[in-house]
């Protein structure tokens, strides 16, 4: 790791605590719109459905609008709550507006960024929507740590497509041989980066080794063992 000059991070589920912030956003909009579904029950359905739709979106199987509508509709259907299209559209817009308001980061994020910033150039590569991701970063007050921020709307493709990694390297004026990617998705972040000749580390709460050929950490502070 002595040759590393540029460190690329995923945002959601890696630095920014998506599930915690998402639950807070849902609590706010459910109260605002008097949605009569127990939040815990809804989230039990929504979390895996949202992941499924994001995987489909990453693989170009659904559009942005299909993702935003479908994940809500499927979750409410499983919760047995009748809801019309206009209400779903309203909730979806309100959820996107509320989500970046909350700024919980994973434990150790700020300490890690403070540790890395004097030693490396830091960057973000995210599949999220441009406006929403920028607001998350701004509200969490972490933008000043990063030299560049690349999102899938800017690049025109999503991780693991090699084009987004090439785009990010060009924007950062970084050499793939002296760069490393850290993210929570083994396919999009890790294998995507490795496929472009960029070293990578998987951030996961899995208690066993996911892949013996891939470097893996379970807490952000563990990155200090590599960087």
From TrEMBL:
Q: Which residues form a coiled coil?
A: none
InterPro entries, sorted: HAD-like_sf, HAD-SF_hydro_IA, HAD-SF_hydro_IA_YjjG/PynA, HAD_sf, PGP-like_dom2, Pyrimidine_5'-ntase_YjjG
Q: Which GO terms describe its molecular function?
A: 5'-nucleotidase activity
What Pfam families does this protein's entry cite?
A: Hydrolase
Alphabetic keyword roster: Hydrolase
Superkingdom field: Bacteria
Q: What protein name does the entry list?
A: Putative hydrolase of the HAD superfamily
The species is: Flavobacterium caeni
Lineage start: Bacteria, Pseudomonadati, Bacteroidota, Flavobacteriia, Flavobacteriales
């Amino acid at each position: 790791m002595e040759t590393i000059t540029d460190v690329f991070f995923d945002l959601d589920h890696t630095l920014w605590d998506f599930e915690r912030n998402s639950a807070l956003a849902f609590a706010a909009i459910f109260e605002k719109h008097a949605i009569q579904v127990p939040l815990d029950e809804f989230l039990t359905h929504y979390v895996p459905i949202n992941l499924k739709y994001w995987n489909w979106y990453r693989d170009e199987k659904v559009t942005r609008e299909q993702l935003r509508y479908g994940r809500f509709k499927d979750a409410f259907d499983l919760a047995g709550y009748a809801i019309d299209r206009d209400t779903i559209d309203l909730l979806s817009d309100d959820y996107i507006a509320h989500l970046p308001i909350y700024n919980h980061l994973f434990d150790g994020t700020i300490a890690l960024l403070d540790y890395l910033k004097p030693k490396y150039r830091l960057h973000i590569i995210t599949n999220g929507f441009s406006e929403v991701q920028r607001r998350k970063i701004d509200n969490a007050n972490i933008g000043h740590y990063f030299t560049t921020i690349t999102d899938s709307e800017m690049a025109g493709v999503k991780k693991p497509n090699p084009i987004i990694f090439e785009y990010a390297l060009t924007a950062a004026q970084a050499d793939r041989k002296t760069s490393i990617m850290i993210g929570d998705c083994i396919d999009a972040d890790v294998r995507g980066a490795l496929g472009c000749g960029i070293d990578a580390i998987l951030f996961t709460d899995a208690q066993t080794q996911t892949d013996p050929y891939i470097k893996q950490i379970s807490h952000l502070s563990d990155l200090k063992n590599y960087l």
